[in-house]
Amino acid sequence: MKLYNSLTRKKEDFVPIEEGKVKMYTCGPTVYHFAHIGNLRSYIMEDILEKYLRYTGYDVKRVMNITDVGHLTSDADEGEDKMLKGAKREHKSVLEIAKFYTDAFFSDCKKLNIKYPDVVEPATHCIDEYIKIITKLIDTGYAYLAGGNVYFDTSKLEKYYVFNDFNAEDLAVGVREGVGEDTNKRNKNDFVLWFTKSKFEEQALKWDSPWGVGYPGWHIECSGISMKHLGEYLDIHCGGIDNAFPHHTNEIAQSESYLGHKWCNYWMHVLHLNTATGKMSKSSGEFLTVSLLEEKGYDPLVYRLFCLQSHYRKALVFSWENLDNAATAYSKLIARIAALKPEGETDEAALSAMRAKFTEALDNDLNTSLALTAVYDALKFNTNDATKLAAIADFDRVLGLGLAEKAEAKRKADAAAPAASAGEFFVISESGEPDAEIEAKLIARRDAKKAKNFAEADRIRDELTAAGIEITDIPNGVKWKRGQ
Ligand SMILES: [Zn+2]
């Protein structure tokens, strides 16, 4: 497969270090708040990469950290500690906050069909690893002590800006984020490996170290956790594009200075989810979470489909209208799959022809929108339904859209209200979740309109409205969703 490598800025053939095996690392969440759906876009696309690698036969080991210490509000080690901020906001301890939001994150992942990584490691569990790395970095002259903290000396590197050629002034962190500069730093981009002179009197989590009681900086945790579980050589490191600088840049700086050789071969970065007014973030605009989508009546898998409809290296614009379109597409797709009859022998030749289109799409730097086209092509393919169903189930091992399960639920709902999919009239649940009773009423409304009994049609509409169901007529049917 070809994968775009942020390090070389080229699509490259993916070749793992050890044949048949892939070592994959993902930057996990900082667990001080709910993840917004923009963050989750990265995890969905990384999940596609992992599942596709497995689909093509690789044995994948994927490791994710959980940041529960050391991440300040500015990625440049300035500002408030995010965990402390969360704890203060909710009048809880840092550990309670970490536990709560770690659970919330994986609950969101589960709803989005994102596989749980093979190893999940909280940053607070690997202090010895960081101390080992920092000690060597000091011994070899890559790190220095100043003002009580340990800093990485970026001037010791031949090349610091590995992902871009931006000028140093533009990227000078601190300045960039509008926070005061740390005068202990010898160079603008030096970063903290270990804090002892805590700015936070109430810092709850502290450990003994050769440099005094303190806690690790944010960047060191990913190097430490990755090396602990995946060794000195890494195949793929993933994260949102936000992490490329300074986080991943710093991970490379410290890891390669420590190891004395190249650390990771491929870097995958997922672009932003934007709103019409700009980049989605926790601090600006509506805070969009998986729970909010559910409250508004959307199936979380509709959001997964929405993400798969575009390429991971393009910024994606979120709007409710765009999500509605994805919901309609999802419902129609489920309806078409539900209409297939799982009978007959699978035609292996047809199956491999369909599969070729699917793998061709994903082999080209994970072109998920073309992979979705392969699903529609399978529906139209000149073969029996059993083969089509086998192809779709096979593709869904990667796409993770719950297609077989949702189609089965739809078949059951249709059995309870057989008119729901009668003729060319579509009753579309915008959330993707069918409901036999509502569908039966919408069909009765359609029949009343056909019979020109408009009073009865209006009565049914009013009854549904009173029950909080919003309905929208479309050219070939009706869409419905639960209101807020
Ligand atoms: Zn990281």
What does this structure look like?
By secondary structure, the chain is α/β, with parallel strands linked by helices. The chain has two domains: 2-270, HUPs (Rossmann fold, 3-Layer(aba) Sandwich), CATH 3.40.50; 290-482, no CATH class. 44% of the residues lie in helices and 18% in strands. The chain contains 16 helices and 19 strands. It has helices spanning 37-55, 82-90, 94-111, 127-139, 168-171, 218-230, 244-259, 290-295, 300-308, 320-338, 348-363, 368-380, 385-399, 403-416, 436-450, 454-466; strands at residues 2-5, 10-13, 21-26, 59-66, 72-74, 78-81, 119-122, 143-146, 149-152, 191-195, 215-216, 234-240, 264-270, 273-275, 278-279, 316-317, 426-429, 469-474, 477-482. A five-stranded parallel β-sheet has the order 7-4-3-12-13, sandwiched between helices. Helix 2 packs across helix 3. The protein is globular and about 85 Å long. Zinc ion binds next to helix 7.
Question: Which small molecules are bound?
Answer: zinc ion
CATH classification class of the largest domain:
Alpha Beta
Supply the helix-strand structural class.
alpha/beta
Poorly predicted spans: 173-178
How far is the first residue's CA from the last residue's CA?
44 Å
Strand content: 15-25%
The chain-level mean pLDDT equals 89
Proportion of residues in helical segments = 40-55%
Strand segment count: 19
What general outline do the C-alpha atoms trace? Answer: globular
Strand order, largest beta sheet? 7-4-3-12-13
Q: How is the biggest beta sheet arranged? A: 5 strands, parallel
Into how many domains do the coordinates divide?
2
CATH topology of the largest domain: Rossmann fold
CATH architecture descriptor name of the largest domain: 3-Layer(aba) Sandwich
